[in-house]
Amino acid sequence: KVQQDLVVGGIAYPKDAWTNTPGTILSKIPKRLHDQADHPIGILRSQIESHFKGFTPVSPAAAVVTVKENFDELGFAPDHPGRSMTDSYYLNKDNMLRTHTSAHEVATFRAGHDSWLLSADVYRRDEIDSSHYPAFHQMEGARVWEQSDLAVLKKLNAEMKKQLEACPLLIEDIAMTSGDNPYQAEHDPEFAAEVAQNLKHSLNSLIFRLFGQTRPGGAASNEEPLKVRWIEAFFPFTSPSYEVEVWWGGEWLEILGCGVVKQQTLITADVPHKIGWAFGLGLERIAMILFSIPDIRLFWSEDARFTKQFQAGQITTFQPYSKYPPCIKDISFWLPETASEEHGAKAAGGGGAVVQGRKPFHENDFCEIVRDVAGDLVENVNLIDDFTHKKTGRKSKCYRITYRSMDRSLSNEEVNKLQSIASGRLVDEMGLELR
Ligand code: PHE
């Protein structure tokens, strides 16, 4: 009998045409790296929590949320690309793995918390390289005030401004709060501006705490102030919205997204009289910089040479153990006929039957299959050739797959086996024709 339900955390989710979450992804849910005090993700989480004094730490249980929580209630348009099956993991049409911690904003505000930090594992379908992994961790932070408390907020901002002036920080603020990135019509513009100011003070101070002491390669920080840049951004659930970047190793690194919470979120959460800000940051990206961890797969390693290097409360530099040689395999194929590409049925994916025609080729689907077969042995998937046959109009692609284990040497035979299983599945499930 065909299994009709996907069981996650003891709850059965009936499969449907949206089901696209493989077991390899579900197996990450119980790991909870953010709860491990001596894992880099847990260590970073604690550092941020101790920086935000008085904020309530929250850690939701289920990685499964409703589509309503992840998207609808946050104002995502019906055709927002994040909703697509190529970008997100669905259990079925109503339930999914959260793609961001913002999925818990409404519930956390509804629980009555005014200042909180929520850490959780989040899931996104993506490409494969040293900084992308389909499971990762985010921290959401938020702070709200009663709309009658403008005087309180102004006083707080004056104090924070003074404290920050003592830090060698160079802040470039090039974000507009007009045009596409306005204060909300529902807000007193003076209050909204103070909220945005508090957000900026709070995050500049966090960034200084995390990045202010050292520079890339462990160089001392007393030479140059730390450079931080605020640019405008767009999120459906904040306005104005910002992205914050840090100047690190000769480039601007994007650290987080944030903004003034859309009043609709607070209305939905039954706290319409409050006003405030929220941010969301990716813990892996920051931990990779602070601990000098070169590959995002290492966070999931259970090899003692990795896990034994870290202690609660300490940001230390990762000492790489020997890097094992890579094993590189190319795979070339023709895409299914153009016609079926364009008129591809919407369904299919993850165990579902393929309905007449194919959905358009998407690199994330390709990577999902490779990852499902080879797991953490895939280091990189890179498009190295892409062309259209002049006469027939058919499209061909060639991907280079780099296999490498973090813990041991791979044999060519073992990798050939993986490559052949992956090729077989790519043919069956995506209609590719090997060349
Ligand atoms: N959830 C957003 C993301 O994952 C980040 C964010 C959080 C932006 C809170 C604004 C406010 O990209």
TrEMBL record:
Q: Name one GO molecular function term.
A: ATP binding
Keyword annotations for this protein, in alphabetical order, are: Aminoacyl-tRNA synthetase, ATP-binding, Ligase, Mitochondrion, Nucleotide-binding, Protein biosynthesis, Transit peptide
GO biological process: what's one of them?
A: phenylalanyl-tRNA aminoacylation
Superkingdom of the organism of origin: Eukaryota
Which Gene Ontology cellular component terms are annotated?
Answer: mitochondrial matrix
Q: What family does the entry list?
A: Belongs to the class-II aminoacyl-tRNA synthetase family.
Q: What does this protein do?
A: Is responsible for the charging of tRNA(Phe) with phenylalanine in mitochondrial translation.
Q: What is this protein called?
A: Phenylalanine--tRNA ligase, mitochondrial
Species of origin reads Filobasidium floriforme
